[in-house]
Write a structure and sequence with these properties.
globular; 9 strands; alpha/beta; 7-stranded parallel β-sheet; about 240 residues
Length: about 240
């Protein structure tokens, strides 16, 4: 069986870890990135530097995947592309809101809609959209981010309901804050405060999160339409 991983946000902290782990599990990896380069080199890694907000640039990727995907293929499709910054309700900016929606959510829909007729030929496709535990507990000044991630939660339910008959399983992973380039400027005191708000008193890393995602897609044959929280109990209260 040919195993294929499609990863958006391939040059981000989580994306890079996902690439490494899927390659370690003998997958052919198609990684999509935008600004930063992917420094990993491997014969089974194919890189596509695209602007995810421009669906016309998906053309080459789609053609390449059409050549690879057959009825014997097993696919893991991970939407790890995402941006985060503070945004207050009283300072609503339409262009900034659209930027969050395009990168965090709409870019996936554009790609998935173009790939659907290819993906449905596979024997199994596990789709994972990265959500956030902030869709279950609120955080001040995160409106654009939370709205876009909440939409991801609904997208996987709709895909699970409408496309399950094509052997497509769709779920969202809702992590708590994990160590990444998005929070590289946090000082030790801030990180310690966040850590103390987690019942297990341990911060999540991109490496650990990638391991959970890969293990889940490797073994999942039946779970679909679910929002799976990985935050060490943070949403339970603190």
């Amino acid at each position: 069986m040919k195993r294929i991983a499609i990863i958006t946000g391939g040059s981000g902290s989580l994306g890079l870890e996902l690439i490494k782990k899927y390659l370690d599990n003998n997958y052919i990896v198609y990684a999509i990135h935008n600004n930063s380069e992917i420094t990993i080199e491997n014969d089974n890694l194919f890189k596509y530097k695209y602007d995810l907000e421009n669906e016309k640039e998906f053309t080459i990727l789609i053609k390449d995947l059409k050549k690879k995907i057959t009825d014997k293929s097993k696919i893991s499709f991970i939407h790890a592309s995402g941006i985060y910054s503070k945004s207050n309700i009283e300072d609503f900016d339409y262009e900034e809101f659209n930027r969050f929606m395009n990168v965090n959510t709409i870019s996936f829909l554009c790609l998935y809609s173009k790939l659907f007729n290819v993906i449905k030929k596979a024997s199994l496709c596990n789709i994972i959209l990265i959500s956030s535990n902030l869709t279950k507990r609120l955080n001040k000044g995160s409106m654009y981010y939370v709205l876009s991630k909440s939409m991801n939660n609904q997208i996987v339910k709709q895909i699970a309901y409408e496309h399950g008959s094509h052997n497509i399983l769709a779920n969202a992973i809702a992590p708590g804050m994990f160590i990444s380039n998005m929070n590289k400027d946090y000082d030790k005191d801030k990180l310690k405060t966040i850590e103390n708000n987690i019942p297990i008193k341990k911060l999540l890393t991109a490496t650990d999160l990638a391991s959970y995602i890969v293990n889940f897609t490797e073994n999942n044959l039946y779970i679909t339409g679910e929002i799976i929280t990985i935050d060490g109990g943070n949403t339970l209260g603190y």
